[in-house]
Design goal:
By secondary structure, the chain is an alpha+beta fold. The strands form 4 sheets. It has a 4-stranded antiparallel beta sheet with strand order 5-6-10-9, with helices on one face. The chain has a 3-stranded antiparallel beta sheet with strand order 1-2-3, with no helix packed on it. Helix 4 runs antiparallel to helix 5, helix 4 crosses helix 7 and helix 4 runs antiparallel to helix 8. The structure holds 3-thiaglutaryl-CoA and flavin-adenine dinucleotide.
Length: 407
């Protein structure tokens, strides 16, 4: 056995080597080295966009409760909308590149990532996957550019975790369809030009592309949110909405339709929350090195170091999980149950990190001068939407036991 390198930068034991290079506090495991050049380019471009266009304004938008709709075209020009879809003027990037973009967007704010998730994974994806060629040509290029904004209506006031109990329905009337019912908690509802609405029909669950200026369609914005404030959330009401035969998505007529869209969006969330987690950890690290109490930086206290290490480890671990899911999705081997693993574990970890970070910032941690409380409040929504923590637990529980425990 050879032992060498004392006084140099590595130990050498037989075949294995240990580098004495100190890890980067902001990328402890050097996850950056696992990315290729194209992935780094996407990551850096989106990170730069967030630092320039989002970070300086987001505290104000969040406080006012607005999402600046002009961002849609900017994100469209950058190729961020439906970026993992092929053709129809979509960027056609890898799933991993899409995940990295979600991470950087959510480091800015969950609402900004949510806008992109809903547009790309929930409104464009069903058209791309289940739409006719005419529907794809008509809608996807303009949605990719940000000219048209979409939303996704699955949840109802009485059908949240159990969307298959939906009451919104569509019936045929000659060649037309008539839609009645309402959807609740719909992101981008009041911004949308088209809504992808899932309904019960005699033929099973079907998706419709509903132009939001159709007679009988109304969107009512939900106000007074204490979370995800830089995001528009709405109730959609459909009162005898008459649609032509070609408004229905022809290629699916079961819950497989909406649930397939959720796989895409949950994948983006598993990545996105790593960004929120990183932002909270970095804010706490910076603050703890500057804030002096008892004549020393609070970073010098063992209890603070323990929090910082917990936050760093949790963020890095979640990043590795997200990257692993990304590699599997690109290889075509990712299962919905593995997406549930990432959604459940990464969101709860991010929430824990945000809460720890908030405590490190003391009183400043409750203000919007720092990003931590905003992320913490946002993550309460992310914990609930796209399948609650409990639902993803049950999805994985069913997978490992073979016994469904939903009802
Ligand atoms: P189940 O009876 O098991 O299956 C019905 C049909 O669906 C198929 N399927 C899936 N297909 C694709 N992907 C999946 N993950 C699928 N899971 C099931 C299944 O094969 C079957 O197909 P078919 O053709 O044989 O009929 O399904 P279920 O209705 O009992 O549902 C089970 C459950 C509880 C897991 C599901 O309802 C669920 O995931 N509930 C959570 C609801 C949820 O996540 N809602 C999210 C709304 S959208 C949102 O929150 C947007 S937030 C904004 C943002 O993303 O930023
Ligand atoms: P419920 O289903 O009523 O759940 C309440 C509690 O009961 C939760 O803790 C849940 O985990 C638990 N529970 C339920 N069933 C079980 C069970 N079988 N076993 C154990 N525990 C259970 N939806 C859309 O369709 N489109 C959107 O764009 C969209 N955007 C959203 C934006 C925001 C800001 C929010 C807050 C929600 C959004 N949603 C959207 C809705 C979201 O998907 C639902 O809120 C979510 O699926 C949970 O439904 P619920 O709120 O009705 O809770």
């Amino acid at each position: 056995m050879e032992v060498s390198g004392v006084g140099t930068d590595r130990y050498h034991f037989g075949m294995s080597q240990i580098s004495l290079q100190k890890p980067d506090p902001r990328d402890f495991l050097d996850i950056d080295s696992l990315l290729d050049d194209e992935e780094r380019l996407v990551r850096d471009t989106v990170r730069d966009f967030v630092r320039r266009e989002i970070d300086p304004h987001i505290g104000g938008w969040w406080e006012e409760g607005v999402f600046p709709v002009e961002l849609a075209k900017v994100m469209g020009d950058m190729g961020l909308l439906g970026m993992h879809l092929e053709g129809y003027d979509c960027a056609g990037t890898s799933a991993t590149a899409y995940g990295l973009a979600c991470l950087e967007l959510e480091a800015g704010d969950s609402g900004v990532r949510s806008f992109t998730s809903v547009q790309g994974s929930l409104a464009m994806f069903p058209i791309w996957e289940f739409g006719s060629e005419e529907q794809k040509q008509e809608y996807l290029p303009r949605m990719a550019s940000g000219e048209l904004i979409g939303c996704f209506g699955l949840t109802e006031a009485d059908s949240g975790s159990d969307p298959s109990s939906m009451k919104t329905n569509a019936r045929r009337d000659g060649d037309d369809w008539i839609l009645n019912g309402s959807k609740m908690w719909i992101t981008n509802g009041n911004l949308a030009d088209i809504a992808v609405v899932w309904t019960r029909t005699d033929e099973g669950v079907r998706g419709f592309i509903v132009p939001t200026d159709t007679k009988g369609f109304t969107a009512n914005e939900i106000k007074h949110k204490a979370s995800l404030r830089a995001s528009v959330t709405s109730e959609l009401v459909l009162d005898n909405v008459r649609l032509p035969a070609d408004a229905v998505l022809p290629e699916v007529s079961s819950m497989r339709g909406p649930l397939s869209c959720l796989n895409e969006a949950r994948f983006g969330i598993a990545w996105g929350v790593v960004g929120a987690s990183r932002a909270c950890y970095e804010a706490a690290l910076d603050y703890s090195l500057e804030r002096v109490q008892f004549d020393q930086p609070i970073a010098s206290f063992q209890l603070t170091q323990q929090k910082l290490v917990e936050m760093m480890v949790s963020t890095q671990r979640a990043n590795l999980v997200a990257l692993h899911l990304g590699r599997r999705k690109d290889a075509g081997t990712l299962s919905p149950q593995q997406v549930s693993f990432g959604k459940m574990d990464n969101v709860r970890n991010a929430l824990d990190v945000a809460r720890l970070a908030r405590s490190v910032l003391g009183a400043n941690g409750i203000t919007l001068e720092y990003p931590v409380f905003r992320h913490m409040a946002n993550l309460e929504t992310v914990y609930t939407y796209e399948g609650t923590n409990e639902i993803h637990t049950l999805i994985m529980g069913e997978t490992i036991t073979g016994i469904g425990a939903f009802d």
